[in-house]
Each structure stands twice: as structure tokens, then as C-alpha cells.
Design a protein that fits this description.
Helices cover 29% and strands 32% of the residues. It has 296 residues and is an alpha+beta fold. The protein has two domains: 7-118, Rossmann fold (3-Layer(aba) Sandwich); 132-288, Tumour Suppressor Smad4 (Sandwich). A six-stranded antiparallel sheet has the order 6-5-16-13-8-9. Strand 3 (64-69), helix 3 (71-81) and strand 4 (88-92) form a beta-alpha-beta unit.
Length: 296
């Protein structure tokens, strides 16, 4: 089943990838306009705009919403569409574009537009961290602090490698608080936790490599060791998916869990799909078949 013709809302982020696709935007919009939809556009100017625009599209019965931007823009759009029947299409113009890669959407914008024309509709699960939906992952602890502090100039220059550099700096300048994850399956303590709805974490790098966006579950990965060697080993082992069987790592699946800092006085940040989304304590759960997406 292809996306129904009718009205399409294109949500654009001119700041995605540090504006690297700004000159291509007229060509992208012309390609979208040639698909046979009645095309409207909204341009984001600040955080939260894409969510507002997507919610308006649902209320106004648009047939399709197309997010043109990076994972942050896509995540905001997802939060406006979650639980509705309005499908999401993606034209990736961001730094990493992890969700597009996870769904098999080409990273070249003209090819991504052709997916809208020739692709099909599919349902995927979403995760919910507190009141924030995520398509990929919720990260709790060191990666959320990295997302919150990464330098925009460094991100523009090094792209995804900027997060590795900032993560190393953050590790050596901050103490990692102890977390507790409680769910029906088990209770586990550690210093870093990821709730994965998808196999990809950043690029083709996977913290929850067994996660499936259509299985009605979240994959949980908890690092129980905060030593320098243990942390370095964890990230290197994750490159080849060998971390999930290590005794200092807990890896399991659940529908819902409660996460809190063992010392409630310590602030622990949460990121969803690469954007800061709050802090502990919170509940993280899966919402099955929460989003329709256009896929190849």
C-alpha cells in the first residue's frame, strides 16, 4: 500500500546538517511537488516547532507528513504523529540520519523522494520515555550528557565522531551516578542504560543490535561497570556486537521499566533519538504499532 494522495505537509529544518542542504531545498521541494500531492510547507525556527506542525497536520487531516531534516527534526515530527493514522515520510538532510538508515531510506534526498512515490506503508513501534516518544532509542546517563554538551562547531566538523570526542571529555570530567532499572523481568543497577527500539544507535553502530521495531518490545542494555577499562571495552566491543554477552553488561527485553538514580539527589539526563528529553526518574515503555512510515 502506497501513501494516499491528498495533502502533504513538508516540515523543513534549514539548520539541519549545519545548513548543508539549504541550497538543495528548492530542488527537493520541486520533486515533492511533482508527486501529485497538494503540498504545504512549514519551516522550523526553534525546538518543538516540528511537533506542533505535525499535530496540526493530524488535526487538519493531511494525508502525509514529510520531515526534511536530521534525526532531531524527525523525532519532533514523530512526537506530533504518534498514535495517529497520518504516515511519516523522511527526506534525510541531517548529520547522521539514523532512522532513515534503519528503515532503508536512501540518504540521497532525490532518492528518498522517489521512495515516497514508489514505496509502501508500514507500522512500527515507538518507545515512550516519560512523555517523549522515540523511534530509535532512549539513552540514560553518559550519552545524554554528551548530547547536552556537544559543541555545535565540533558536530559540524566531525559529524558523528564529535559525540565520541565529547563523550570522552565528559567521562573524565563527570562522575557517573548509579542507576536502577526495575521491570517485570528483572532489577539491575548500572551506570549507563539504553532502551532500544531499533538496532542502530549512531550510524551503523548498535548498542541494542537485536532490537526490532515491530516486535512489541524494547531491548535494554545496562553497563554495570564505570571503570576506565570497562567503559572503553564496552564501546569498542559494541562495534562488533560482542558487548551483549559480557558479565558486566545486562541485556534483556521488556515492555516497560522504571528508571531512577539510586541517589535521588543526583541529576541524570535522558536523551531520545539524539535530543535531550528530560531527566530521571521516569518510566520507559513500548507503544506497539504507534507510527505509520513510508518505506522502500
Amino acid at each position: 500500500m502506497t501513501a494516499p494522495k491528498g495533502r502533504m505537509l513538508a516540515i523543513t529544518n534549514p539548520a539541519a546538517s549545519a545548513g548543508g542542504f539549504r541550497r538543495d531545498m528548492p530542488r527537493i521541494m520541486a520533486a515533492l511537488g511533482a508527486l501529485g500531492y497538494e503540498l504545504d510547507t512549514r519551516q522550523t525556527k526553534g525546538p518543538g516547532d516540528a511537533t506542533v506542525f505535525a499535530r496540526q497536520a493530524v488535526a487538519e487531516a493531511y494525508g502525509l507528513v514529510c520531515a526534511i531534516g536530521g534525526d532531531g527534526t524527525v523525532n519532533e515530527t514523530v512526537n506530533g504523529l504518534a498514535g495517529s493514522d497520518v504516515p511519516l515520510a523522511i527526506v534525510p538532510t541531517g548529520t547522521v540520519n539514523v532512522l532513515a538508515m534503519e528503515l532503508g531510506i536512501p540518504l540521497d534526498p532525490p532518492d528518498a523522494v522517489r521512495v515516497i512515490e514508489n514505496g509502501s506503508l508500514s507500522w512500527i513501534d515507538l518507545g515512550l520515555a516519560g512523555d517523549r516518544y522515540f523511534a530509535l532509542m532512549a539513552g540514560i546517563g553518559m550519552d545524554a550528557r554528551t548530547v547536552a554538551t556537544v559543541n555545535p562547531v565540533l558536530k559540524k566538523t566531525l559529524k558523528e565522531a564529535a559525540f565520541a570526542v565529547q563523550g570522552a571529555v565528559s567521562y573524565f570530567t563527570h562522575e557517573e551516578p548509579l542507576l536502577r532499572v526495575d521491570c517485570e523481568e528483572r532489577s539491575v543497577e548500572g551506570y549507563f542504560a539504553v532502551f532500544g527500539n531499533a538496532a542502530n544507535y549512531g550510524g551503523t553502530f548498535g548498542i541494542t543490535p537485536l532490537a526490532d521495531m515491530r516486535d512489541g518490545l524494547l531491548d535494554v542494555c545496562v553497563l554495570k561497570d564505570k571503570s576506565i577499562l570497562g567503559t572503553a571495552w564496552y564501546w569498542l566491543a559494541a562495534l562488533v556486537n560482542s558487548h551483549i554477552s559480557h558479565p558486566k553488561v545486562a541485556y534483556f527485553r521488556t515492555k516497560a521499566a522504571r528508571v531512577a538514580a539510586v541517589d535521588a539527589r543526583q541529576e541524570v539526563l535522558v536523551q531520545t533519538d539524539g535530543e535531550v528529553a528530560g531527566k530521571l526518574p521516569l518510566e520507559c515503555r513500548v507503544v506497539p504499532r504507534a507510527l505509520r512510515v513510508v518505506v522502500p
